[in-house]
Amino acid sequence: MGTTPEGSSPRTLAEALRARSEQELTALLRARPDLLNPVPGDLTQLATRASTRASVVRALERLDRFTLQTAEALAVAPDPGRYETLLALLGGDDGDPEVEAALPRAVEALRTQALVWGGGGRLRLVRTARELLTPSPSRPSPTGLGPTVAEATAGMSPGRLQEILAANELPTTHDPVSAVTALTSLFTDRRRMGELLDQAPSEALTVLDRLVWGPPYGEVTASPTPPVRWLRDHGLLLPASPRTVVLPREAALHLRAGRAHRTAEPVPPAVLPARTAASGRPAGVDEAAAGQAYTALSTVEELLQDWHEGGPPVLRAGGLAVRDLKRTAAALDTHEQMAAFWLELTYTAGLLAADGEADERYAPTPVYDEWLTLPAAERWALLADAWLTATRTAGLVGGHDGKGRALSALGPEMDRSAAPEVRRRVLELLASLEPGTAPDPESVLARLRWERPLRPGAGAGSDGVVDLRSRMAAWTLAEAETLGVTGRGALSEHGRALLGPAEGEPRPAADRARTAALTTVERAAAQSAAADALAPLLPTPLDHVLLQADLTAVAPGPLERPLAETLAVLADIESKGGATVYRFTPGSVRRALDAGRAASDLHTFLATHSRTPVPQPLSYLIDDVARRHGHLRIGAASAYVRCDDDALLDEILADKRSQGLGLRRVAPTVLAAQADPATLLQNLRSIGYAPSAESPQGDVLITRAHAHRTPPRTPPVPVPDGPPAPDDTLLSAAVRAVRAGDLAATVERKPAAEPGDRPPGPGGGLPRSTSAETLATVQAAVMTGSALWIGYVNAEGAASQRVIAPVRVEGGFVTAYDHTADEVRTYPLHRITGVAELADDPA
């Protein structure tokens, strides 16, 4: 840290920041990027902004548990506090080697983030942080401590104070201040306090035991019991209200052996292997994860293929209706929560969106068609990266927001800005174990709670759940297994590659929060590495099936896309698993014929792609359906049936199942119908006939699945968790600008030339000089190369002060290097309010 002159201590936070090096200011702005928007004009503005309530709350929420415990202990210590006092509050009277080893890091973390300033002998907590962490009746402290003796006796009558002193055998005083000092001295003296408690009734000690670790407040009746009366008489319980008493902080600390917290946690909990984990087989983990990854790809394709011609409608408020979610879950043969995960994943990856039509529906996007053409490993890497970086949280589906409204899949209220950081951190903790080792989930959650503890009253999300981060971590473990990032609970090799380059040193929690997301280039490299690691583990697509005599075909593995698409039209999928079983039926064969395939084409296709001979029953089925296919023709009149065989038309008219179609003969080979062509076609097929549709010109209509796509859509943009992390270039420029602005505000100036003029200075506003004096001073600075302090008013009327080094003066303009902006700028002379020379030019 930057140091102040020997024997002195900074009086304000601004002075402490002024003593910092550029590297230390950069570390502050990197840890608290909200201080950069906009860039502060000088270090005083930076200190003021760093002390605002919103910024301090944000910084406190990103501290790990021990660093936060350190800040809480400092909040109950005298202000300013000594390092030794802080160490005693955290380690207790007996000391704690782990606390002693970890405390310097915690204090340095607080000082880096400008939450603490001052040297070891005068540690000061930023005023706003002290207000937030100091115990009060309305805002209990995690320490469980109450007010000090001085705070608890404020407003107490002088006579009552003297009675307490007399009960403790202390000399009476003439004023309340000295009485409070005497009582505080007694409670902080270990020997004298021990002697006092030795005199207390055992029941009184029992009362103190109930209050010592908090909450320190207790209710009393108008006639308290003798033990409580003894405690009140001796000041060990002080009145907080007419019916409430409080244990003063100094007495509680004595009873706690000096500890501010029941349990200090200087060391993060270790992530432990699962009790049932079988480590030592990373290859088995990778294979299991690859199997899950392949299943994930198949599930996404099945989902979007089911919505190929347009999916369910979009609710008026956005999202998917519960009944449509249930239908989707049934179609995917899974439960609703898992179906919501797949829907959110495809939506996040940009493969699914609303079509934007008047009757808005969900449908695949054009990106889906491009995604299908990629190799399987690359398709998985895109899905996994979208999941890892998304703020949309599928686990919330089925819950309620802060107003009691149900949260629906694909709805607008599904973003949680902390989700990417939680997912990445969970995977980083898994990566810290030996390859092939699954973690104990509870140890992972305990570690995350240590790294980002929740302060009382903080962290409650819009869904009303306080510990949402722990729930997100649990969802992450389950989703990573489902997606194939982990296998058997352990992080796979391709999952490890998805995280990007391994970190050398562990980073503080505040830094992890700022750098959770990789850059675009790093993400692309991580996706490529993950795809390369996964590719050898995925099965190679097959170009053949095994036809069987029971009118089924067995695909012993994944099929090449053209083969799979054609087979899906020609046959119905009967079962899935390690092998897929397709069944040929009259309806499926007719579907292929409707799509424009001839019987000869189907025979050739099966013979080409079957490793077994084409069974005779299957050949007969194709020929039989093809022979009857298109014998009847249906077209639009309202609708008609045309057939060269009038006996077949007689048969249809006589069939009772066709009575509802309103058929009547209009010619020997033509029947007219009241139903529309599509209904007529569907009903005759259900009766058992094989009609085909025809065009107005009498040609057979070939029916193919209509692929409904949305217009081009971009994936949903993650909701940022606060301001974006600044890069090194921005941080460097911001530090230079703040330094230059601080120089302009604090540098020593020469006195004004005229005795009557007000000397410019930090409290004198902008410098003032006449136009002639300004021009002469600037011209002289050009020749001498010296720097000047100027006042400047821009075109919008905003005034500012700057330190410039003039280079050239011509045409009513001065060109100079602006130390404040760290660049060369040109200023109109008429907008310069005045100039003043610096006592010492800036380096």
TrEMBL record:
Tell me which UniProt keywords the record has, alphabetically.
ATP-binding, Helicase, Hydrolase, Nucleotide-binding
One example of the protein's molecular function in GO is: helicase activity
Span of domain WYL: 773-835
| Domain annotation Helicase XPB/Ssl2 N-terminal: ranges | 545-667
Q: Which residues form a coiled coil?
A: none
Q: Where is the composition biased (Basic and acidic residues)?
A: 747-757
Give the transmembrane region(s): none
A Pfam family annotated for this chain is WYL
Provide the residue span(s) of the region labelled Disordered: 747-770
Q: Please identify the protein, giving its name as recorded.
A: Helicase C-terminal domain-containing protein
Lineage, top-rank taxon, reads: Bacteria
